[in-house]
Amino acid sequence: MNLSIAIAGKGGTGKTTLSALLVRAMQERGARPILAVDADPNSNLAEALGVEEGTALAEIREKGSSEEGSPASGVGRARAIDDEIQRAITEADGFDLITMGRPEGPRCYCYVNTLLRKSLDDLSGNYHAVVMDNEAGMEHLSRRTTNDVDVLIAVMDPTLPALRAAKRILALSDELPVKIGRRMLLVNRVGPDGLPEQIDAQVDQLGAERLADVPQDAELDRARAIGQDVFRLAEENSALAVVREIIETLTS
Q1: Phi, psi of 82 (to 5 degrees)
Q2: Is the peptide bond between 41 and the residue preceding it cis, with omega within 30 degrees of 0?
Q3: What is the spatial distance between Cα 139 and Cα 143, in angstroms, rounded to a whole number?
């Protein structure tokens, strides 16, 4: 399996939990190693995966762009940034995690961003799969990589604000300087009665491939509430079962 997946959605729709579930489901399917990228400034992916967050790339960027913190330009500087990225990786059983961190400040970051991008592109090539948890604006996606993205999944829950955010994400994806193979929509936390009729009708008009709805799951809700990682969920968990089906869809 060689698959890169970018997840984006309005805050609170469960995209970080979905990203973690995708990592678990791909691991179970034999995709090892996996690179998980937390590209949301409100970083929570480490907790969802049950690991400690490493040094954020934002810190490396800030240090590399400051006069006192940056090595000389050229090969030495590129090597120094590459070494720092390697140290920033959190290594776990079957997957690694890297955290992007906060947005840029007022400095000039062009050269450092170029070095970061090259290092991350090279790093991504060492993994069978890459899962990127993005903010709704997807700013980090355009800055993180020049590599193509196989799948963009816009995540929403059964609410109109989340639907509008998913619509904006899908429209924004056409403007990114990254080639995206498939644009897909996933409705998360769907109750036993399904989607409200008004929302269901609009979902079908978004022009994206629709993945299976992920059901509201009491065990998953409890795990989120107490900060429990997805690897502690029961094998028969209903949300995990659907995510396993989604992986089959994405790799078929």
Answers
A1: -60, -40
A2: no
A3: 7
Sequence-distant (6+) residues with CB within 8 A of 17 are: 48, 220, 224, 230
Is domain 3-54+93-102+127-251 annotated with CATH 3.40.50.300? yes
Q: Which helix (H) or strand (E) covers residue 155, if one does?
A: strand 149-156
Give the alpha-carbon dihedral of 34, 9, 113, 126, to 10 degrees: 10
- 215 contacts 239 by C-beta, under 8 angstroms: yes
How many Cβ atoms are within 10 Å of 229's Cβ, its own excluded?
Answer: 16
Q: How far apart are CA 32 and CA 104, in angstroms?
A: 32
Under 8 Å CB-to-CB from 106, ≥6 apart: which residues? none
Alpha-carbon separation of residue 13 from 1, 108, 188, 203 (angstroms): 27, 34, 7, 15
CB-CB contact of 86 with 57 (8 Å) = no
**How distant is the alpha carbon of residue 182 from its chain centre?**
15
**Overall pTM surpassing 0.85 (yes/no):** yes
The answer to whether residues 184 and 151 touch, using CB atoms and an 8 Å cutoff, is yes
Q: What confidence tens digit (pLDDT) does each residue in 175-225 have?
A: 887 889 999 999 999 999 999 999 999 998 998 999 999 999 999 999 999
Task: Report domain extents, the chain.
Answer: 3-54+93-102+127-251
